[in-house]
TrEMBL record:
Protein transport. Probably involved in vesicular traffic. This is Ras-related protein Rab7. It is a lipid-anchor. Keywords: GTP-binding, Lipoprotein, Membrane, Methylation, Nucleotide-binding, Prenylation, Protein transport, Transport. Pfam families: Ras. Coiled coil: none annotated. One of its GO terms (molecular function) is GTPase activity. It comes from Prunus persica (Peach). PANTHER family: RAB FAMILY, RAS-RELATED PROTEIN RABG3C-RELATED. GO terms for cellular component: plasma membrane.
Length: 190
C-alpha cells in the first residue's frame, strides 16, 4: 500500500483517510483543471497494486496519456518494483512512442515517523528517474497534502503535451494511468 488512493483523494477531494481498502481492479476520479486558458477534465485512474488484483487493472492502461508510478519512501521493495511497473505498463498499454511516453514518479509517505523510517533517499530516486529519460519526480505526503497539487499539475501538463491540437475540445478529458498499474487516465501505482 503505497498510497495511490490516498493521493487521488487528497488531490481531488482534499481529504485523507487511513481507512482505504486495497483497490480491486481499478477506480477513477475526475477533476477539472485549467491549463493554458483551457478547461480540462482530468480523469485519474487508480489501479490495483496488490499482486492478486493486478491483472484486473491492465485493461485500463491502453489509451492513457500519462502514467504515474508511486512508491513508498519507507519501503525499499516498492521502489525496486518501479522498473517492473514501468515495463509492464509499456507492454500492456503499447503506446505508439514508448521511448517518449510520459511518466511521473511520486515518492509518497515522506511524513511517516518524521522521515526517520525512510529507506529510499531522494538522491537515489532522482538517479533512477534520470536513468529512465529524466522522468519528473516529486516527494509527497498524501496525509499532509504536501506537494500533491504540484505533482498533479506536472502530471496534467505531461498528459496534455502529446495531445494533437485537433483533438482538443472544451471541456477535454485526459486520461492518466496510475502508478503500480497505469491506464489511459492518470493513475497512480507502484
Amino acid at each position: 500500500m503505497v498510497g495511490k488512493t490516498s493521493l487521488m483523494n487528497q488531490y481531488v477531494n482534499r481529504k485523507f483517510s487511513n481507512q482505504y481498502k486495497a483497490t480491486i481492479g481499478a477506480d477513477f476520479l475526475t477533476k477539472e483543471v485549467q491549463f493554458e486558458d483551457r478547461l480540462f477534465t482530468l480523469q485519474i485512474w487508480d489501479t490495483a497494486g496488490q499482486e492478486r488484483f493486478q491483472s484486473l487493472g491492465v485493461a485500463f492502461y491502453r489509451g492513457a496519456d500519462c502514467c504515474v508510478l508511486v512508491y513508498d519512501v519507507n519501503v525499499m521493495k516498492s521502489f525496486e518494483n518501479l522498473n517492473n511497473w514501468r515495463e509492464e505498463f509499456l507492454i500492456q498499454a503499447s503506446p505508439s512512442d514508448p521511448e517518449n511516453f510520459p511518466f511521473v514518479v511520486l515518492g509518497n509517505k515522506i511524513d511517516v515517523d518524521g522521515g526517520n523510517s525512510r529507506v529510499v533517499s531522494e538522491k537515489k530516486a532522482k538517479a533512477w528517474c534520470a536513468s529512465k529519460g529524466n522522468i519528473p519526480y516529486f516527494e509527497t505526503s498524501a496525509k499532509e497534502g504536501f506537494n500533491v497539487d504540484d505533482a498533479f499539475q506536472c502530471i496534467a501538463k505531461n498528459a496534455l503535451k502529446n495531445e494533437p491540437e485537433e483533438e482538443i475540445y472544451l471541456p477535454d478529458t485526459i486520461d492518466v494511468a496510475g502508478g503500480g498499474r497505469q491506464q489511459r487516465s492518470t493513475g497512480c501505482e507502484c
